[in-house]
Known about the structure:
With 288 residues, the protein is of the alpha/beta class. The protein is built from eleven helices and twelve strands. The chain has a four-stranded parallel β-sheet. A four-stranded antiparallel β-sheet has the order 5-8-6-7, with helices on both faces. A four-stranded antiparallel β-sheet has the order 10-9-11-12. The chain is globular, with a radius of gyration of 19 Å.
Amino acid sequence: MTPPGFLFCRDPLRPRRPDSLFAAEEAAVRRAGARTVLTDHDALLAGDTETAVGRVPRDSGAYWYRGWMVPSGRYAELDRALAARGCSLLTGARAYRAAHELPGWYEAFAGLTPRSVWRPLPVGGALPDPAVWSALAGALGSGPGIVKDFVKSRKHEWHEACFVPELEDTDRLSAVVGRFVGLQGDSLAGGVVLRAYEPFVPGGEARVWWVDGEVVRVTAHPDTPDRLPAPDLDTVGEAVRALGCRWVTTDMALREDGVWRVVEVGDGQVSGLPAGDDGEGLFRALLG
């Protein structure tokens, strides 16, 4: 059986080289003894899957993808394009969506993560009446909340496009949602998510890497590379195994009451490592 390979994004200006952000990882994969192939991420996002996978040898086996985030619909096109070449992704399109988008992973982690509700909204779609957001927030009750889409928030625009001091304040909620959607633009993923706000202690988040339901690494979150908390993982593994995706990450933070919480779940293929970490140990685990 052919060992799995890795698909890395190419450098847009130097197409024979991996994207500079992933160059150290691509080298680490090769040191681990795995095949690497470069894909064209820009072509994939444009819907040109033939160009995107043009360098992938036909009938060359199974691959992990490793690179920039891909919208779930485009990832499904990548999956089909590889299948047409006699190849496959080790994380299929359905599993990718489940780990990448909050509605896919929320049920498995419902007791471990802030309460959440959501509403699909297509890119460019008209914003509904403010009463729609108020009704949606009603399921969370009173108190502060967070606005995000199915994949990401805009936490760096905290007060204008992320945090809502009181979810029952219809005007403020609608204003934050509108600003968030406007800033996301064509990058809006899936729709709008409202989450109950939970206060976490300072100290950064830990990113936990899981392969086939087992912890293989715990790293700092890329946003706080100098801080590495030590989260309690006793109950999280059960949720990861219930989700059933092969390579996932869980971002964890300590709530002010001393309880470790899952802030986000992600597909491991598009989750970032902290600066200076080439991930060699992680890639060796994926080659199993």
